[in-house]
Amino acid sequence: MSSTNRRYPWAALAVLGLLGGAVATAKDAQNAAVAAAEKIRLEVARMRGLDYLAPVKVGMKKPDEIRAMILEGFEEEAPVDEVAKQAKVYERLGLLPEGFDLRARLIDFLSEQIGGYYDPEKKELFLVDQSENPQLKGQQAAQAMQDEMVMAHELHHALQDQNFDLQRWFEVLEGHDDRILGYKSLVEGEAQLVGLQFLFKRMGRGNVDVAQFNRMQEMAMRLSPEAKKLREMPPYLVETMMFPYTQGAEFVQAMQRKHGWDRVTAAFAAPPSSSEQVLHPEKYFGPERDEPLEIVLPKLAQALDGGVKGWDELYTNVLGEFSVGLLLRGLGAPKAQAERAATGWDGDRFVGLEKDGRLVVVWVSTWDSEQDAEKFLKVYAPLLGKQRPTAHVERRGVDVVLVDGASGAEERERLLRRGFASLKVEQRLAPMPGMTARPPRSDFVPEPSSPAPGVASATAAPSGATPALVRNDVLGTTFALPPGWAPGTDPIEAIRQMPSAYLAGPDGQELRLLLMPISLAQAGEQLEALVQQGVQDLKLEGRASPRALGRPALQLDFSGVLPASSARSRARGLVVDLGTDSLVLIASAPAAGATPPSAGLDALLATLWVDGRQALGAAVTHGPARLELPAGFIARRGSGPWTYEAEGGARIQLVEASPAAGLDDAGRALLAQLPLVLGDFQLRSAGVVARAGRPVHELDYVAAGRRTRQVTLDASGRRWTLAVSAPSDRFAQHEAQFGRVLAAFGVQELGPGPDGKDPARRGAY
């Protein structure tokens, strides 16, 4: 239904949960739910094999706020008069009962059934707070699992949006409900599959079989308290809403099982174009994709009232195989018979015309064969005759035309002739590059007047001010300060005695970086022991093994009263493997605050660069410059910079030039030029830091599908830039190696010897 397509297209309907009910999160648990989203987000990304461009903002809305949101959406995109026109045509076709208030019932249905939704315009995920719902008392454990499934479902929509831009196809397909249903079946079906897989894993039940789950769900719904209310709704309304979640999930699972997740990813560049392809997946990913025919209707109004003008086209659209089956059921056919009669559909289009209270509906459909058309007609014609005895339906070959509302035989024949004279076209949509390119990160990260979290500007720090980038030679780290954060003295004495750095942020947030000269496993054990010994009222909330900064890592989530604090806090510890050493990051935030500790940690990780702690061995010199290469990097001959490449597009380049300006000025000029030269330029961090007491300009950016990290320094009267880069989706695979390359890089320059006369060599940094 067009009136439900735009405002909140990516919602998790509560009736789809295995355990039933809408999302219920008590007020005092809201912060915990928001914090849990980060863990679920990482798991969803791992399950799907895709990466987020940015963190996902998570909020809560009460049921009355959800209803207000729905009303706002209808006011903007489905005005009362437009929905009333649609309802008239649906009623005449037999999809809705006579006098059915489509708009009001849609609002009621969605208000009650939405369990959470991802807003692709605001880039925000909302869960529904049902903490005051008396029907959910005593169901906390079951509801917690349901909440997590809905969160996984909605976080997956955010992942889809950050990789494919959910609105692109939606905007192209507007006004074609069956194509929209095919696209929504891909989007909702994939999110439903991932959400169910997450739930089944959480319950220790192995892999989910979506078809079997849907059958169990249907049986459970017949016995649920919602069953009576749902039976009062027309099947067309309820089942069209449910189709992308149920049949869509079966469709995606069939594709994933047969061809893998890469094929599902490719589907976003060419989504299913009909409900027929979703119902029969082989028609989508089989040897030959079965595309529907588009019906182009002639000017039917000229056949009415002798061609007198004044007819208003109320509504025109396409039903598709699934809705044809619902139409037959609405007229009284059993479900199995209706579904059999609808198979063989190949395209259709209907239109409703009105003048002075008289409504005329013409529906043209075409079928794969004459046998399919006759099979449909044998079921449809008798049912239509009982419901609308004045309507007329006729078959000619593979085409079937319905005329309802004609004033007499002559007008009916004119409409039939024009209906059978419709044009049939096979329309294949071929997306241009902009439809398939990954959206830029800037679409998902706010752009305030000050630098965004984790992004520093090379022009933002005047002389003498805190530098845009923060460098710690002992830890071997460089990072950009998020807005509102500042270096300080760690209030925890035990940590202050270790090689560490401390940052204080807004709203009581804290970040700590520690270097431990032990292995990842040992550092993880020590972190856990440190937490258990030092945190009062400790509650361990989870342990995971993600990858961070391209390296193996361990994650520990906990809450309690931290040392040097009197208030309860939430905290996240992350241990990153540096080879012989481990880097420990601890983020904390007040438990009563609205910002989870993951927010500060994400801002830090967005620009954190860690030097390597191990030598690579293969030393290469270019005059006074020296660098060490990882295995597999081969020199590429040619003019220009010294370049070394490896399989997969990884690249190391060394450029030598004459210094035309200071590092600060050169950095500003470079940042002004790069977006113009490269296009689609996304700055991650930039600025001048002191490495071993020497100024070095560091730059991290993404452009043309590649991520590049580079350092620039002046030595021996020349300017040297070492850049490491790789395709954005493969950069993490090389991040640890690149860190060691940049850490081992050095330039020697001549200086006076100890006696002030003989030249000696000294390192530039």
Q: Helical percent range?
A: 25-40%
Q: Number of domains in the coordinates?
A: 4
Number of helices: 23
Unreliable residue runs: 2-8, 14-29, 447-467, 757-764
Written account of the structure:
There is one protein chain. Strands 14, 15, 16, 17, 18, 19, 20 and 21 form an eight-stranded antiparallel β-sheet that branches. The protein has a seven-stranded antiparallel β-sheet with strand order 25-26-27-31-30-29-28, with helices on both faces. It has a five-stranded antiparallel β-sheet with strand order 6-7-8-10-9, sandwiched between helices. Helix 7 crosses helix 10, helix 10 (235-259) packs across helix 11 and helix 14 (320-330) runs antiparallel to helix 15 (335-342). Helices cover 38% and strands 27% of the residues. It folds into four domains: 2-291, no CATH class; 295-426, no CATH class; 446-609, 3-Layer(aba) Sandwich (Protein Transport Mog1p, Chain A); 618-763, Protein Transport Mog1p, Chain A. It contains 23 helices and 33 strands. The longest helix is centred in the N-terminal third of the chain and has 26 residues, at 177-202. With 765 residues, it is an alpha+beta fold. The radius of gyration is 32 Å and the shape is elongated. The termini are far apart.
